[in-house]
Specification:
Layout (H helix, E strand, L loop, with lengths): L1 E6 L8 E9 H16 L14 H31 L4 E9 L7 E10 L12 E6 L4 H14 L2 E4 L9 E10 L2 E14 L7 H7 L7 E7 L13 E15 L5 H6 L7 H35 L6 H21 L15 H21 L5 H12 L5 H10 L1 H23 L1 E6 L2 H5 L6
Parallel strand pairs: 5-11
Antiparallel strand pairs: 1-2, 2-4, 3-4, 6-10, 7-8, 7-10, 9-10
Helix pairs in contact: 1-2, 3-6, 6-11, 7-8, 9-10, 9-11, 10-11
């Protein structure tokens, strides 16, 4: 076997390499003979007992297939030896290109493939990373308990005009140019005024109505309304109110606490549990935002090319995840095609970060330590009713534990980068951190 390695000289594919190889035909012939003899011991053919088929008969039937297998094995062996001898780190699979005119007595071919890029982490000391900072206060606990109260709202029938926050039950029929339009009718339809279930104009028109009252009004749909036949159109509605129900929030008492899982109804314990959950959620959000900023700093400091083979594989993986998500939502993917090309930019970013992080972990011994993994798993389990069961679930199978190990490794990288970069803490509000539309 002879080999020769060179770059492909393609400007846009700096990682692409070509290895020219040749294999002696006599070596392939020997392998074909060995394979045919082995096959003759097991092959079944009409008119012959198993293991008694003459070699020439086996060769006449199976030699083309066996020769193809022998050539494939020879090519694979030659490529593997060439890669090892030249210390090449191959990304993806090679493309084998046979040469049309080979020298006498040899088969010549080329393997075109990509190699992993050299990853040199840039200077992080000049990178600015802003890390959110927030201490959970009693005000956040109060607001969260109020949200929990609203989630348990019940409604009581009232004899007054409907106001914002009330639940009303109505019949309505919408028509355009004197004809009912699709989706514009309902009987005994309940909705909460001002909750966003209906258009603001509809809420405004029925607000102030009482049970038993009927009303006609015009409404103009927004220009960007999803139903194109109605977007920007003026229609007429007939509405009759059946019920007006006022919201009643539960009292913050022992019954409320028990409904939220506090067995003895102790309000202090409820507040403690709510605060603990908030602290964990705040920690998670801070970690996530800091991680995003660290990853951007790493990408900016470490320019490198992503091997196309890895990008293609990652794009295909992301596309398949999207298909599975659609199927889980009941959307037939044969009618909603998902193309791998849609995910190319995301795949490039993920591949680059994977290469960078792998280099950081190896060079700085940032692997997840067993005690770190255990601490993370126990932290995730503490919000469950039976924490020990979740811990056991993670440690039951290696692939589950590997997920926790990956998270710890990422945290180690984030901590290492923050220590090297110009990292500053910035106080943020609870709403800002949680991404709520309204600030406190």
């Amino acid at each position: 076997m002879q080999t020769n390695q060179e770059a492909t000289n393609t400007n846009s594919r700096a990682l692409e390499r070509r290895i020219d190889m040749s294999v002696a035909v006599t070596d392939i012939d020997k392998d074909v003979d060995v394979r045919l003899k082995r096959l003759s011991h097991t092959v079944k053919m009409p008119g012959f007992r198993p293991g008694k088929v003459p070699l020439r008969v086996v060769a006449r039937t199976y030699e083309p297939q066996v020769r193809s297998e022998a050539i494939g094995a020879a090519v694979e062996k030659a490529f593997g030896e060439a890669v090892r001898s030249q210390n090449l780190r191959v990304a993806g699979y090679p493309r084998i290109e046979p040469k049309e005119a080979s020298a006498a007595g040899v088969l010549e071919f080329s393997a075109v493939f990509e190699v992993y890029p050299d990853v040199v982490i840039g200077d992080l000391s000049a990178r600015d990373i802003e890390r959110p900072r927030l201490e959970v206060s009693e005000a956040e606990v109060d607001r969260t308990i109020e949200v929990l109260r609203k989630q348990r709202t019940r409604y009581e029938l009232v004899e007054r005009a409907a106001a914002a926050g009330d639940r009303i039950v109505v019949d309505f029929a919408g028509s355009k140019d004197g004809k009912l339009f699709e989706g514009g009718q309902a009987q005994e339809f309940p909705f909460v005024l001002g909750a966003g279930t209906m258009l603001k104009e509809f809420d405004a028109a029925v607000g102030g109505m009482t049970a038993g009252e009927s009303k006609s009004f015009e409404l103009t749909f927004p220009a960007d309304y999803p139903a194109k036949g109605l977007a920007g159109q003026t229609v007429q509605f007939e509405v009759k109110v059946h019920k007006v129900e006022a919201p009643v929030l539960p009292e913050i008492d022992a019954a409320f606490a028990r409904a939220l899982g506090i067995g003895d109804g102790d309000i202090a314990k409820l507040r403690e549990e709510v605060k603990g959950n908030l602290v964990r959620e705040v920690k998670h959000r801070i970690q996530a935002k800091t991680k995003d900023r660290v990853m951007e700093a790493l990408l900016a400091a470490t320019p490198l090319e992503a091997p196309k083979a890895l990008v293609d594989a990652e794009s295909a993986h992301l596309a398949e995840n999207a298909r599975q998500d659609l199927r889980s939502r009941g959307v037939p993917t044969d009618k909603v095609p998902v193309e791998s090309a849609w995910f190319t930019d995301q795949a490039v970013r993920r591949v680059k970060l994977g290469l960078i992080m792998a280099e950081l972990v190896k060079a700085n011994q940032l692997h997840a330590r067993p005690e770190q993994v255990r601490a993370l798993v126990e932290e995730m389990a503490c919000s469950y009713e039976r924490p020990a069961e979740l811990v056991h679930w993670y440690y039951e199978k290696p692939e589950r534990l590997a997920q926790a190990e990956a998270l710890v490794t990422e945290d180690n990288v984030v901590e290492w980068v923050c220590a090297k970069a110009r990292t500053t803490d910035k106080a943020v509000s609870f709403d800002e951190l949680m991404g709520n539309a309204q600030s406190a």
